[in-house]
Task: inverse folding
C-alpha cells in the first residue's frame, strides 16, 4: 500500500526482485523505476493525465508519475515488462495486437498494466467498465475504440 | 535496427530509453516573454551549479535553421530577439538530468520587452517580428485558375461565408528527444524521435558545418508524429553541438510542456470563401481569402500557405478557382504540418459552405457531392490529376450506413467529402533524385532482408513495405525482415510526411523486390535448363509453370544465385513523374495519386446546456488497395479520433502571450470514455501509380470528419456553424469571440 508517511530508505519489490532505494524526497516512482532500468515505464506527460507511466502497485494500476517513491516502502511493483511471462497479460497483449489497436506502441505498456489489473480483479468486466478504466490511458494514435472492442471480446 | 515483429513496437527502446556510457544530459532555457530584445544572457551561474559541465547560448550557432531553404529564419537558440514564450534561448548540460535542470534555472536573462503580436488579425502593420518581413506576412500568395470573374458573373447563386478554424497540436504520446554522440572517429551519431531522418541528416550537417558524410541519423522506435516531428529542432542541434564540444554523448528529452512550445501544430485560420453555383447546381467558381496564423517562424509554413488554397476544389469539379493566402507572423510557437497539412481548414470552409448551399437549394448533400465528383482521368483547374477515384463509392458507403437512422429534435446526421495527396511530387530540398530507395537481399536460409530509409512513426510503414515485398516475391510476409532507421545503413527516403511512404517507398520496394525475383529465377532457370519466364516463385519453391512437379526449393535457388553472383541483392528507387504547374508555387500540390474519403456524423446538441454529443462517425476511405487491412483500419480510427478532438475539445492558443494549454490535463484529447462509435469502411479503387494499386490512408481520412460533425451540428440546431472547435459558448450562441461577425448569404 502506498503510505503517505515518507521513508528515507525504501524497500521495493520490482517485478519480483527486491531492491532498496534512497530516493530524493520529491522523487516520483517513475523516475526511480526508469533509473533502475525499467525503460518499459514511459513518460508521456508527467502530470497524471496520459497513463503511459502506469504500473501496478500492490495490484492496483496507478500513474507512477504521481506517486512519490518515498511513500512506497514495502510495495510490490509490477511493470509491463514484469508481465511478460503472465498468461493473462499475454492474452491481453495478443488481443490488442490482433485488433490492430497498437500503432506506435508508446501507450501500450501502460494500457497492458491497466487492462491486466482490471482483468485480475474483475473476471468479466462490461464495456462501460472497460471504457472507464481505459480512460486514464491516452492513445494518441487513436487505438482506444479498438482496444475497448478487443478487451470486451476477451471478457 | 531490424524489426523482428513490427506489431510489438513497445518492446524496443524509444529515444528516452537509450543510454550510452558516459552520457550527460541537456536542458533548454526558454524565453519567458513573447517578444523582446535580448540584452544579455549570463551563463556563469549555471556553470557554477554543481554537476553542470557546460552551457551555450545562441552565439554558438552561426547559421539559421529552417527545412525550406527559401525561408530559413529560425535560430537554433534565439539570437538578438525572442519571438515567443518557450523559445529556446540557452542550453545547460549536467551529469544528471536534475543537475542540468537546476543549472538551467539559474541562467540570467535580461530581456527588453517589445510589443507582442498576439492575434493574426492584428499582425499586419504591427511591430515586425522579422526585419525582412516588415508587414509580418511570410508571403502574400494570389493564384487564379480559370475565368474566375466570368464564372462569378454567370452564377445563379453566390454563397459567402467566413470561417474560423482554431489551432491545435499533435500531442504525439512520446515527447521529442535526441541522443547525440560525437564519436572518436570524428563522426556524429544522432538518435532522434523524428519523422524525417533524411532532413535531420542534411539540415544538421548544415547547422553544424559538417560534411553530411560525417553525420549518421538513427531512429529508434518513434512514439507517434502526426507531423509534429518533421522539422529539425533546437534539441537535436544543441545535443549534437554539445557532444562535439564535450566529446561525450548528450541526451535531451523534452517535457510535455516543452513539446507544447515546440508545437508546429495546426494553423489557426480565418477564411472568407465565395462559391458561385449555376442554375444546374454546378460549382462555377471558388474564391477564398485565407489568413493563417503562423506563429513566430516560417518552418514549413510556405507549404501550408499554398496547400491551404491548392486543395480547395478536390474532390469536386470546379470551373475556376482563386485564392489569396497569407500566413502571418505572431508571437506564438510556430505552426506547421499537422495531419492533413494545410488542407483541413479549407476543407472545413468548403464543406460547410456547400452544406449551407445544399440546404438553401434544397439538394441532398450526398447526391450533390456525387454529382460534382471528379472522375478518373480528370484534372482540377489548377492541374491536379486524378488517376483513380473511389470518392463516389465512399459517399455511397456513408449514405448507405446512415439511411435509416431516425433523428429526434436536436439530432442530425452531417456529411462531408475530401481528397488528399499520396506524397508531394517535389521534394522539400529541391533536386531530381529518387524520393525513396530500397535494397533487398536474399539469404541462403530463405529469408529476404529489406532495407529502407523509412521512418516508422507508428503508422505501420515498415509492415506495409514488408507485405509489398513479400507479395512481389510470392512469399509469406514472415520471410521478409525489414531494417530501417539508420542513414548509414539504409538508402535514402525523404521521410514520413505528406502521406508519401506507402506510395513512394512502396514503389521503390516493389522495384527492388521485382528485380531480385528475376535474379533468383534466372539462377534457377540455368539449373533447370529452362527460361526464367517459364518459372513461378511459390512460397518456399521455384517451379516450372507447366510442369508443377519440376522445380527446386527457394533456398537452393538462392544458393545457386549466390554461387553465380557472390551476393544476391537488388535495389530500386522511385521518382515521381508528375509535372509541376507552370506558375509560381506550381510544385506545391501535384501528387502521383489522390486518396478520397467521405464521412458522416450523427450528433445531438442541447442548446440550453451548450453540450454536444457525437454518437457515431462513419468514415469511408479509398486507399487504393489495403495492403494491410488492420493498419488501414487503425489509421481510420486514428484520423476519426484526432478529428473529433480537433472539432470539439482541443485548442491551442495564446493567453496573455503564453501558449495555452501546455499540459494534457487541460488540452482535452478524447479518452476511451468519450468516444463515439466509429464505423470504418475501407474502399479500394486501385491507382495505376500506387504500389499494387495502394494509396495513402494516414492523413486523408481526417479531412471530412471535422466538417461532417460541423454540418451535423448546423443541421441539428438550424444555425450557421462557422468556427472550430465547437465549444459550448459557440453552441450557446454566444458568438465567435475573436472573429468577425460571420454570415452566410445565399443570394
Ligand atoms: S506520464 Fe504519468 S500519467 Fe502521463
Ligand atoms: S499506439 Fe501510439 S499512443 Fe497508443
Result:
Amino acid at each position: 500500500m502506498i503510505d503517505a508517511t515518507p521513508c528515507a530508505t525504501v524497500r521495493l519489490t520490482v517485478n519480483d526482485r527486491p531492491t532498496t532505494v534512497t530516493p530524493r524526497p520529491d522523487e516520483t516512482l517513475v523516475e526511480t523505476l526508469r533509473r533502475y532500468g525499467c525503460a518499459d515505464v514511459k513518460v508521456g506527460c508527467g502530470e497524471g493525465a496520459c497513463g503511459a507511466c502506469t504500473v501496478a502497485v500492490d495490484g492496483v494500476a496507478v500513474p507512477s508519475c504521481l506517486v512519490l517513491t518515498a511513500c512506497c516502502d514495502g510495495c510490490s511493483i509490477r511493470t509491463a515488462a514484469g508481465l511478460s511471462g503472465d498468461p493473462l497479460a499475454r492474452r491481453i497483449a495478443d488481443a490488442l495486437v490482433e485488433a490492430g489497436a497498437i500503432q506506435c506502441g508508446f501507450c501500450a505498456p501502460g494500457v497492458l498494466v491497466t487492462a491486466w489489473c482490471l482483468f485480475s480483479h474483475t473476471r468479466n468486466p462490461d464495456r462501460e467498465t472497460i471504457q472507464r478504466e481505459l480512460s486514464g490511458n491516452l492513445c494518441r494514435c487513436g487505438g482506444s475504440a479498438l482496444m475497448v472492442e478487443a478487451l470486451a471480446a476477451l471478457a | 535496427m531490424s524489426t523482428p515483429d513490427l506489431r510489438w513496437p513497445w518492446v524496443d527502446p524509444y529515444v528516452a530509453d537509450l543510454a550510452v556510457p558516459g552520457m550527460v544530459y541537456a536542458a533548454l532555457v526558454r524565453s519567458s516573454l513573447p517578444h523582446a530584445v535580448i540584452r544579455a544572457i549570463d551563463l556563469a551561474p549555471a556553470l557554477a551549479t554543481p554537476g553542470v559541465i557546460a552551457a551555450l547560448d545562441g552565439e554558438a550557432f552561426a547559421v539559421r535553421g529552417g527545412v525550406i531553404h527559401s525561408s530559413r529564419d529560425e535560430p537554433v537558440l534565439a539570437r538578438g530577439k525572442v519571438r515567443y514564450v518557450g523559445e529556446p534561448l540557452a542550453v545547460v548540460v549536467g551529469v544528471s538530468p536534475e543537475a542540468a535542470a537546476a543549472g538551467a534555472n539559474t541562467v540570467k536573462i535580461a530581456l527588453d520587452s517589445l510589443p507582442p503580436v498576439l492575434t493574426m488579425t492584428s499582425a499586419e502593420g504591427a511591430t515586425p517580428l522579422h526585419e525582412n518581413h516588415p508587414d509580418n506576412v511570410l508571403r502574400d500568395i494570389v493564384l487564379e485558375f480559370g475565368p474566375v470573374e466570368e464564372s462569378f458573373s454567370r452564377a445563379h447563386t453566390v454563397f459567402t461565408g467566413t470561417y474560423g478554424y482554431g489551432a491545435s497540436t499533435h500531442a504525439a504520446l512520446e515527447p521529442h528527444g535526441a541522443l547525440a554522440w560525437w564519436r572518436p572517429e570524428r563522426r556524429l551519431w544522432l538518435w532522434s524521435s523524428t519523422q524525417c531522418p533524411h532532413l535531420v541528416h542534411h539540415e544538421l550537417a548544415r547547422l553544424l558545418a559538417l560534411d553530411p558524410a560525417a553525420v549518421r541519423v538513427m531512429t529508434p522506435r518513434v512514439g507517434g508524429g502526426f507531423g509534429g516531428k518533421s522539422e529539425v529542432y533546437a534539441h537535436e542541434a544543441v545535443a549534437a553541438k554539445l557532444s562535439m564540444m564535450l566529446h561525450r554523448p548528450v541526451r535531451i528529452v523534452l517535457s510535455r510542456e516543452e513539446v507544447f512550445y515546440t508545437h508546429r501544430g495546426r494553423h489557426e485560420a480565418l477564411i472568407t470563401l465565395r462559391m458561385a453555383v449555376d442554375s444546374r447546381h454546378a460549382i462555377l467558381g471558388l474564391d477564398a481569402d485565407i489568413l493563417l496564423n503562423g506563429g513566430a517562424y516560417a518552418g514549413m509554413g510556405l507549404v501550408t500557405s499554398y496547400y491551404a488554397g491548392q486543395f480547395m476544389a478536390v474532390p469536386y469539379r470546379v470551373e475556376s478557382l482563386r485564392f489569396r493566402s497569407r500566413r502571418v507572423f505572431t508571437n506564438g510557437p510556430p505552426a506547421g504540418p499537422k495531419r492533413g497539412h494545410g488542407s483541413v481548414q479549407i476543407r472545413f470552409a468548403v464543406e460547410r459552405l456547400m452544406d449551407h448551399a445544399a440546404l438553401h437549394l434544397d439538394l441532398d448533400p450526398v447526391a450533390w457531392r456525387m454529382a460534382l465528383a471528379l472522375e478518373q482521368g480528370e484534372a482540377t483547374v489548377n492541374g491536379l490529376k486524378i488517376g483513380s477515384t473511389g470518392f463516389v463509392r465512399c459517399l455511397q458507403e456513408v449514405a448507405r450506413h446512415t439511411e435509416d437512422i431516425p433523428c429526434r429534435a436536436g439530432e442530425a446526421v452531417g456529411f462531408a467529402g475530401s481528397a488528399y495527396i499520396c506524397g508531394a511530387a517535389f521534394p522539400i530540398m529541391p533536386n531530381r533524385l529518387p524520393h525513396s530507395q530500397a535494397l533487398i537481399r536474399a539469404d541462403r536460409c530463405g529469408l529476404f532482408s529489406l532495407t529502407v530509409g523509412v521512418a516508422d512513426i507508428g503508422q505501420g510503414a515498415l509492415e506495409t513495405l514488408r507485405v509489398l515485398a513479400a507479395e512481389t516475391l510470392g512469399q509469406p510476409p514472415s520471410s521478409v525482415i525489414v531494417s530501417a532507421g539508420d542513414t548509414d545503413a539504409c538508402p535514402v527516403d525523404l521521410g514520413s510526411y505528406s502521406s508519401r511512404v506507402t506510395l513512394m517507398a512502396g514503389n521503390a520496394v516493389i522495384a527492388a523486390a521485382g528485380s531480385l525475383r528475376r535474379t533468383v529465377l534466372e539462377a534457377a532457370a540455368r539449373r533447370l535448363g529452362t527460361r526464367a519466364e517459364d518459372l513461378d516463385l511459390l512460397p518456399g519453391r521455384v517451379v516450372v509453370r507447366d510442369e508443377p512437379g519440376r522445380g527446386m526449393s527457394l533456398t537452393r535457388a538462392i544458393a545457386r544465385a549466390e554461387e553465380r553472383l557472390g551476393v544476391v541483392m537488388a535495389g530500386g528507387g522511385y521518382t515521381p513523374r508528375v509535372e509541376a504547374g507552370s506558375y509560381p508555387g506550381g510544385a506545391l500540390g501535384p501528387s502521383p495519386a489522390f486518396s478520397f474519403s467521405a464521412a458522416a456524423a450523427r450528433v445531438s446538441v442541447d442548446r440550453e446546456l451548450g453540450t454536444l454529443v457525437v454518437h457515431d462517425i462513419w468514415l469511408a476511405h479509398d486507399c487504393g488497395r489495403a495492403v494491410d487491412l488492420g493498419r488501414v483500419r487503425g489509421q481510420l480510427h486514428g484520423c476519426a479520433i484526432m478529428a473529433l478532438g480537433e472539432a470539439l475539445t482541443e485548442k491551442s492558443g495564446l493567453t496573455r502571450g503564453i501558449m495555452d494549454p501546455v499540459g494534457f490535463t487541460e488540452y482535452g484529447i478524447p479518452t476511451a470514455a468519450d468516444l463515439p462509435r466509429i464505423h470504418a469502411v475501407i474502399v479500394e479503387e486501385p491507382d495505376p501509380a500506387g504500389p499494387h494499386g495502394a494509396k495513402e490512408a494516414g492523413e486523408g481520412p481526417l479531412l471530412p470528419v471535422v466538417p461532417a460533425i460541423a454540418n451535423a451540428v448546423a443541421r441539428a440546431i438550424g444555425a450557421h456553424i462557422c468556427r472550430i472547435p465547437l465549444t459550448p459558448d459557440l453552441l450557446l450562441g454566444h458568438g465567435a469571440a475573436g472573429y468577425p461577425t460571420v454570415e452566410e448569404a445565399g443570394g
Notes: The CA atoms of residues 19 and 112 of chain A lie 24 Å apart. Residues A 43-46, 48-53, 63, 65 surround FE2/S2 (inorganic) cluster (ligand 1) (CB under 6 Å). Chain A has two domains: 10-79, 83-154. The mean pLDDT of chain A is 96.
